[in-house]
Design brief:
By secondary structure, the chain is of the alpha/beta class. Among the domains are: 50 residues, no CATH class; 92 residues. It has 13 helices and twelve strands. The radius of gyration is 28 Å and the shape is globular.
């Protein structure tokens, strides 16, 4: 019995020593965290939701209270996937006392969007607000929201998606054009009206440089919109056709150097005609096409790039085409695809591959696409 007690005592002593050896470094870690400079803490806070920062660090000590509550720490507030009760609580505890510190607001629910904009006004008191993201909005109150944004002195970024078709696109686009400092705009909504005819003066221009239209339009629908954006540097849009009527090529900004197009029912001839008016200025081209086999004509691409795209240094290409399930058809496509392995493409480090697949309706497709191992997939 004494031997058992002695062994137990020895084990307890070793366990206590081990616990102390673990606790001591932990205390040291806590101390080290508190010793971090304000600048490093701000860097850490960038990776944490602002509401979680309040929950974790407020009332911890005077220093953290100052950093969180009384400093000029920028706030990015995300009101996605919240109940109305939680939303109201966060508005009262974080948003209202810190309006002057908010640089970003995000909403992902049309009910919360409606509630927020009927309860609060986005005016010049939001003097640091740079980015506003409105996801899954409803069209009926979008105009009233956009009218208030003109009062924001620093609103550089605007993202809007709608769960409904827009009934008054002319008003929507006109209000966006008139936002005084907007640089980045991403829009995703369908239109009831076929054409856009803006009631803007000829001398009304937008400072937008980055425009992403994530809904399919005819390019002529965008004529009146693009002509008021002369500083456009990056354009991304989905186009159902480039040929629905005579297109005013003068709409394209002389500053456009990055272009992403997703084309449907557009032949290579139509694409080549369209892009020839500004191809000389392009540095980055990302292109998604389908059906027309001429897009797989490597010789034609080489001539187009050599003669009209001398400044192009990034080319992302994705083409898909329906095939017959026979060896002769596969062989025909493989001959075309192999021509994209010449020195012209290799010297520019533009590499491609392809895949065969069947869609849900059992249609056979070949997908031919770029692979760019030296850089990120996204242009922006």
């Amino acid at each position: 019995m004494d031997i058992v007690k002695k062994e137990f005592s020895i084990n307890m002593t070793q366990s206590n020593r081990l616990s102390k050896s673990i606790i001591k470094p932990m205390k040291s870690i806590i101390t080290c965290f508190e010793d971090l400079s304000n600048e490093i803490l701000y860097e850490i806070f960038d990776f944490i939701d602002n509401y979680d920062i309040y929950e974790i660090f407020s009332n911890l000590n005077n220093r953290f209270n100052y950093l969180i509550i009384h400093s000029c720490l920028p706030l990015k507030l995300n009101f996605s996937y919240l109940s109305k009760t939680t939303f109201e609580y966060r508005c009262n505890t974080i948003l209202i006392p810190n309006i002057h510190r908010i640089i970003s607001l995000q909403f992902s629910n049309h009910l919360l969007i409606d509630y927020f904009f009927t309860s609060y006004t986005l005016d010049s008191s939001f003097k640091r607000l740079e980015a506003l993201i409105l996801l899954n909005t409803k069209s009926d109150n979008l105009i009233s929201i956009l009218k208030t944004l003109n009062l924001l002195p620093c609103l550089y970024s605007l993202t809007i998606t709608s769960i409904e078709k827009i009934q008054s696109p002319n008003d929507i686009f006109s209000l966006i054009i008139r936002l005084p400092v907007l640089k980045y705009c991403k829009l995703s909504f369908e239109l009831w009206n076929q054409y856009i005819n803006l009631s803007l003066n000829n001398n009304e221009y937008s400072p937008i440089k980055y425009l992403i239209i994530d809904t399919k339009y005819n390019l002529d629908q965008l004529n009146d919109f693009l002509i008021h954006i002369p500083n456009l540097n990056y354009l991304s849009c989905k186009i159902s056709t480039l040929n629905s009527k005579q297109i005013n090529i003068s709409i394209i900004s002389n500053n456009l150097i990055k272009l992403c197009l997703k084309l449907e029912d557009t032949s290579f001839d139509e694409f080549e005609y369209f892009i020839s008016y500004f191809s000389h200025q392009l540095k980055i081209l990302r292109l998604y096409t389908q059906r027309d086999i001429e897009y797989l004509n490597a010789d034609r691409w080489e001539q187009l790039i050599l003669c009209q795209m001398s400044n192009l240094h990034r080319f992302d290409f994705h083409h898909q085409i329906i095939t017959d399930e026979n060896i002769l058809d596969y062989h025909r496509y493989h001959i075309l695809i192999d021509k994209f392995k010449s020195s012209f493409w290799i010297n520019r480090k533009w590499f491609f591959t392809h895949q065969h697949y069947k869609s849900k309706d059992f249609t056979s497709w070949i997908i031919f696409y770029s692979i760019q191992p030296y850089r990120s997939v996204h242009i922006i």
